[in-house]
Amino acid sequence: MFAKSNRYMFALGLIVAACLLAIFIFSGSHSHTGHVEASGPPKSGGLVTPSAVIVTVSLQNNRFNPATVNITTGTTVRWNWVNGFHSTTSGDCCDPNGIWDSGSTGVAGTNFDHTFSTPGTFPYFCMVHGQMMTGTVVVTAASTATISGRVLGPNGRGIKGARVILTDQASVAQNVTANHLGAYQLSNVTTGQSYTLSVQARRCTFTPRSLSVNGNLTNEDIVCQ
C-alpha cells in the first residue's frame, strides 16, 4: 500500500513539473523585452500618408553643394557631411533664427534632415565658416491634381468595390474604392511625377498603367482583362 502511494505521488509530481515547464516555455516564447514592433504608415481617409521627398546637400570643401535648392512643400533636405568641420544653421549669416541647427561636427557620413512644410526662402550658413559657407532653400507650394475614371468589367459595367491604387516612384501608395458605378477619384496627387495605376478586384485581372501627372486626369477608365 505504501509503495503504491509513493508511485502515485511520484507520478503526480512528474505531471506538476511538466505543467510548470510548459507554462515557463509558453510565457518565454511570448516575451518581447526591449523590442518595439513598427506600425504601418498612418492612414487618413483610406489614403496612405506619403513620405517626404528627400533632396541631399553635401558639406564638402567648405561649401554647401548645391548652394541653392528649389523644392516644394513637404520635401526634406538632407545635409550630408563629406569632409571638414561644419554646421547647417538657419538664418542670415551670421544670425541664427532658430528654425533648424545641426550643431557643428566633423564626422564624415553624418546626416541632418529638416522637412519644409511652408513656402518661403530660407537662408542658412555654417557656424564655423560664416560668410564663406552659406546656402539657400527656396520652397514653393506643391501643386496637386486629381485622377478620375471608372473600373469596368468585360461587359462594360462598373465594378463596385474595386480598389484603385496609385503608386509613386518611391513606392508610396494611396488608394480609393470604386463606388457602385465603378467610379473612382484619387485626390491630392502631386504633379510633375510619374506613377503606376493598378486595380485589385475579385475575378478580374488588370494591367498596371504608367501615368505622368502634370495636371488633372479624367476618364482614366480601367477595364478588366
The number of E-state strands comes to 17
Please, how many helices?
A: 1
**Cα end-to-end separation:** 81 Å
Helix content: 10-25%
List the strand order in the largest sheet: 4-3-6-8
**Stretches with pLDDT under 50, minimum 5 residues:** 23-51
Order of helices and strands: HEEEEEEEEEEEEEEEEE
Strand pairing plus helix content: what structural class? mainly beta
Shape: elongated
Percent range for β-strand residues: 35-45%
Oligomer state equals single chain
Biggest sheet features: 4 strands, mixed
Provide the residue-averaged pLDDT: 83
Computed over alpha carbons, the radius of gyration is 29 Å
3D structure, described in words:
This protein is mainly β. It is 12% helix and 42% strand. The strands form five sheets. The protein has a four-stranded mixed beta sheet with strand order 4-3-6-8, with no helix packed on it. Strands 5-10-9-7 form a four-stranded mixed beta sheet, with no helix packed on it. Strands 13-12-15-16 form a four-stranded antiparallel beta sheet, with no helix packed on it. The radius of gyration is 29 Å and the shape is elongated.
Topology:
Elements: H1 2-29, E1 43-44, E2 47-48, E3 54-60, E4 63-65, E5 68-72, E6 75-81, E7 89-90, E8 111-116, E9 120-126, E10 130-140, E11 144-152, E12 163-168, E13 173-177, E14 183-190, E15 193-200, E16 209-213, E17 222-223
Parallel strand pairs: 3-6, 5-10, 11-17
Antiparallel strand pairs: 1-2, 3-4, 6-8, 7-9, 9-10, 11-14, 12-13, 12-15, 15-16
